[in-house]
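Tutorial, part two.
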Amino acid sequence: MQADLLQQLRDIHLPAEPLWWPPAPGWWLLAALGIAALIYLARQIGAAIRRRRPIREARKLYQKLYGDYLSGIIDDRIYLHESNELLKRLFIHGLHDDQARKANDDDWLRMLDKRSGTSQFSEGPGRQLGNQRFRFKPEADPQALHPLLSRFLKEVRP
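Running the prediction step on this input gives:
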């Protein structure tokens, strides 16, 4: 009698495998967080590129300026004035430092020193960018000033 009862039972059937679609709510949340993180990262990278654009442009303009000086298109005096103008424009429009607008002579050189982390502008070859460049015959040495300006433009950060 016992055997008949066991014979009447049906075989064990496993439930169907869960489908991959639609995903569980946790996966939806993870996907939304991943997309939000990618959008945030893309915006941060875009903002960093926009902040550095004026510095890249200043480097290009300075290389052209120095090339013009080397080829004899401009003289020492014009090189000093245009280098100073380029740095002023970079400070005001690229680095958004309005203090540079009214800075001149020693104040300007101290600002350059502070930004560069050296004293080469107020005590070294950068002194040429002070008011002495307005003299009838300024003491210009672009060969000494070039490495300082190149290094400054390479290392300056927004």
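The chain has a mean pLDDT of 92. In part three we will examine how such features are distributed along the chain.
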